[in-house]
Amino acid sequence: MKVGGAVRVPGDKSISHRALMFAAMARGTSHLGGVLPSLDVRGTARVLRQLGAVITPLRGEHAVRVKGRGRLLPSEGTLNCGNSGTTARLLLGLLAAHRFRATLTGDSSLRRRPMARVTAPLGLMGARIDARGDGLPLDITGGRLHGIRYELPVSSAQLKSALLLAAAAGGVDLGVREPAGRSRDHTERLLRAFGYTVLERDGWIEFVASGRVVPFELQVPGDISSAAFMLGAALLAEGGALRVVGVGVNPTRTGVLTVLARMGAEIALEPTGSELDEPVADLDVRPSLLRGTIVAAAEIPGLIDEVPLLAVLASRASGPSVFRDVGELRVKESNRLELIAANLRAVGAAAEVRGEDLWVAGDAPIPRGRVRTDGDHRLAMAFAVLGTVAGARVAVDDMACVAVSFPGFEALLRSLAVRGGR
After folding, report:
1. How many CB atoms lie within 10 A of CB 151?
2. N- or C-end of the chain: fewer Cβ atoms within 10 A?
3. What torsion do the CA atoms of 57, 60, 61, 66 make, to the nearest 10 degrees?
4. pLDDT at residue number 419
5. Element (H, E) at 213
């Protein structure tokens, strides 16, 4: 296909989750524009309503009003976090500072995802956890917290944010360190906006409970993880140019742009402003001849969600690509690591998992075959992008799952084509 015009992607999922949680903790009414109306974010809104917040419906084009009570209130029912690990893990952080018992669960996929990596440090801070193994369901009883210094087992924004939110809600100081790379820092930026001290020193994030969450206004920027799929389709196109407008370009999220540039992608960034210290820009992209690359382990925390898209692009590049130390992909919504490799092979590319690394040969033939997603939204979108290659015949077994993060994805992907294109 040939591409043209400008598109706007939905609001950033990570910021949407966090903005709703911060607004629920404020005493008064906050106004949030551009909140992503995906299944995951709706799940966060649903459980926050159970915990006492008044939240208007999430409809995308309308601002969301959140009336918080300054604290969470006990819920009589179980808090079902659906498919969202962000909802479950960040909510555990908030609940750790509230002196009541709550039960969390999720769908079959979320119940298989590890939670002990979050509950263990929250237990050290003073929360009581009653779990039936490493996952959900589990019960948490919050309490009077105390500060700790803690080294995370993996670099993860969800883990880091859970501890920071617990410290903020509990009014205690915290030191937290990630082992490798720097995960997204949306939580830190929001905390600073409300007067909390968050410093980076000698590899540690030092949090001082010096602020207070108050009602606020925010226009959520476009999600760069969603924009990456539009960029990928444009890079694989036969001609034209595309502009993706209003995208959040937080430096801890733009690792995908760095890797794409290294692969030869023609992408230009034009800054347009910021929202609560979150930089925003328009992205201009042209079809490009890509080359293989090595993505180092230290880069992975800043682009973990974009690995499926980068892997399918790597299959169209000249020469091999290697993604180092991506074992964390095994505990996403699916065993994402093994499925990326298996699905690339299913459509004719050469790919394999070597220990904790993903290897993609590049120089693949025109992709043709059937893709199995196991309900993983990012796999579905990545291989749908691969299916836009001229002559491709890629059948994705479940496109409905993209509603988890990108409602309207298929229509927007189709809209990229211009007359005289595919």
Report:
1. 12
2. C
3. 40
4. 45
5. none
| Tokens at 397, concatenated | 């077994």
Can you tell me the mean pLDDT for 32-38? 96
Q: Note the pTM of the prediction, 2 decimals.
A: 0.93
**Residue 330 has what DSSP assignment?**
G
pLDDT for res 185: 96
pLDDT at 249 over 90: yes
| Residue 290 and residue 265 in contact, taking contact as beta carbons nearer than 8 Å | yes
- What are the tokens at 104? 């969390």
Element (H, E) at 69: strand 64-69
* Selection from 47, 21, 162 nearest residue 106 by Cα: 47
Please answer whether residues 334 and 374 qualify as being in contact, where contact means their C-beta atoms are separated by less than 8 angstroms: yes
Mutual orientation of helices 157-170 and 13-25 as an angle, nearest 10°? 10
| CB neighbourhood size of 400 (10 A) | 11
Tokens 């880091």 sit on residue: 160
| 421: confidence class by pLDDT, cuts 50, 70, 90 | very low
Give catalytic residue positions. Answer: 305
Retrieve residue 250's tokens. Answer: 């937080």
β-partners of residue 160 are: none
Per residue in 158-184, pLDDT tens?
999 999 999 999 999 999 999 977 899
The Cα 238–Cα 299 span in angstroms is 30
Query: What contacts 128, CB < 8 A, 6 or more positions away?
Result: 140, 141, 143
* CA 384 – CA 382 distance, rounded (Å): 5
Angle at 317 between CA 4 and CA 10, to 5 degrees: 40
Number of H helices, E strands in the chain: 13, 24
Tell me the sheet residues that pair with 207. 174, 198
Collapse the DSSP code of 348 into the 3-class scheme (helix H, G, I; strand E, B; otherwise coil) and give the result: coil
